[in-house]
Every structure is written in structure tokens, then in C-alpha cells.
Amino acid sequence: MEELIHEKIELAKTLPSKYYLDEEIFRDIKNKISLMWHFSAHENQLSQNNIVPIKHSTKLMNEPIILTRDEVIKSLSNVCTHRGMIINTESTKSNVLKCKYHGRTYDLKGCMKNMPKFDNVVDFPDESDNLKCFSTIRWKGLLFTSLRKTSTPRWIEFLEDRMGWLNIESFVHDIEYYKSYKINANWALYVDNYLEGFHIPYVHSDLNEVLSYDDYETEIFEDGVLQIGIAKENEDSFDLPEISKDYGKKIAAYYFWIFPGLMLNFYPWGLSVNIVVPTSVDKTEIIYQRYIADPSLIGEGAGGDLDKVEREDQEIVEAVQIGISSSSYDRGRYSPTMERGVHHFHRILTNI
Ligand code: FES
Ligand SMILES: [Fe+2]
Hints:
The chain is α+β, with helices and mostly antiparallel strands. The chain contains nine helices and 16 strands. The chain folds into two domains: 18-32 and 172-349, Naphthalene 1,2-dioxygenase Alpha Subunit, Chain A, domain 1 (Alpha-Beta Complex), CATH 3.90.380; 43-135, 3-layer Sandwich (Rieske Iron-sulfur Protein). The longest helix is centred in the last third of the chain and has 19 residues, at 306-324.
């Protein structure tokens, strides 16, 4: 059977517009992606507190999740097993999780410890009274959670191979910085736009001043895409060690995208984590959090005015949402040199 998105980019047509417009397709995709690996936090967020609710997990995975730090970090359900109250809404330092509704308590492993007025309840407590525990993996201080019991994703190897030299574990969470942008477009349009540097000279005049357009690189890996922005003369770049694969290059930014909507953008100042949350078929929320390596470099180079770049992208993506709704548009073609990342994304999306 011929695939919807042809393997050969030179022959392929882009994603049909129904993928951005159809409610049923949206719901089906959203259900499937809710079960995948999602970024939850940097372990630095658990250095002061040992109970940290993950704000975006309900929107992304349809599951309120809380991270707890005991001997190890766990991803637990944040839903009380009594009558379903959300247990913690704020980060805190405590050895017990206590439900505000009727006072049930749990330890940091999620085991129910105490419940008032339950003395004569038969077969209580049993396993189902403990909090559910989900799969967690850690890569260089970054924590990922999956609702399914599933093996370590292959993209971790790619990240390690490329960024293993960087001391991401020591990055510090910027508590003050949590941005949420709401846009009137389908989430996949936002991802499409992220996955090509093709539009930079047309859309981002300031960014174009610091990046060398002709040297922009795109690499494909399993369930992800890496784009590398090369700095122009005199612009900020990484001081790469010899063990880095890119040693000798003047790199301004590493842009990693991991299916479905995780963006790990590394700049000389640190890491910007952007999470794309599909809200409805034509509404998306983008959450920005950041982790600092060197505060003196914030505001410089390709990772400088991220707010402006974000606004420029949103304007385009919202206009495209209107464009693809028109009866005169269904599918386009790809640039084999500039749109390999978009092509890869569309192939993953149509095969999940
Ligand atoms: S819902 Fe949590 S103790 Fe009742
Ligand atoms: Fe952009």
C-alpha cells in the first residue's frame, strides 16, 4: 500500500489539511501521544523540594502527575485514591503527601499510610489504595515520564551521543520564568514551523542577523530531529570540547525536537524547554521553561530575544491555520534540502 507521506521526499506530498482540521483525527492522535514519553522536569526542581507537581501533565497526558524524591525520583499519580481529589498543587518539602479533602496520607513512594475514620473498613488498605506509579527515566538531570511501562526510548542515545559532553545536570531551574503562549492553530502546524529553518530570513529578521543561513544543518533520528544553527562571525557560540562531534564548528544553538511536541533548545546560556500542548483541533498552548548554565549570557545570540521569535512564529502559524482551512488548499510539496525535518515529522505522525 502506498504510504500517505512518501518515503522519498522528492516524491512526497505534505500532510493533508484534514490532519490540522478534523476533530476526530485530532482526538485519536491526542489519545495516542498521551501515552508516550513526556518531559516532566529537571532534577534541579527537586533540589529544594521533594514533592513537585507537574503542571503540564494533565493537559498533555490527561493525568495529574507529581514527582517525589525519596532515594530515587518517582512519577506518581497526583489523584487521591479515596474520592479523587488532587493532592498537591504546589511544590513542597515534606515526607508525606496529605490530601486536603479528608486527610489521607501517603509516603513519598505513594504507599497509603493513614486514613481517618476508616477503622472498620474491610480489606483496607490494599494495593489499590496506594498511588499509581508511572515509568520515569533520567538523562543528564532531565526527567521523563510515561504512563505505559515501556523501554527507554531510542532518542536518548542520540541526545547522549551529541550532547553527552555538556554538564546539563548542573543547570539551574529559573523559577521566575514560566511562559505560556496560547495560539489559534493546530499543534502540528506549530511543530511543522519549528522543524525548518527555511523561514528564518523571511520571518525572523533579528535571528537572521546572528545565524548563518546557508550553514544551517538538519539531522534526522528516531522520533526526532536536530537542527543546528551556525553563528555568524562575532556572534555567541558554544565553546565545544574536543570530545564533541561538532568540535571546530561555531554553533549558536542546538534545536532538538522529540515527537510529539518536546523542544530542547540548547544555547550557550543554557536550555530552553518548550512543550507543545495540543488543546483542541485549532488551539495550542506552548509552555516555556528554562534552565541556566551561565546567567551572564542570557539575552545574547540565537537564544537572545526568544519572545520576539515566538511571536513571529505564532503570527505565521495562525495565518497558516486559516490558509489550510480554505477549499483551495489540501497538500503541498517539500523542499528536499530545507524541509527534511517536516517530512520526517509527517511520516511519524501518519504511522503512529
Ligand atoms: S479525597 Fe482524598 S482523603 Fe478524601
Ligand atoms: Fe521560526
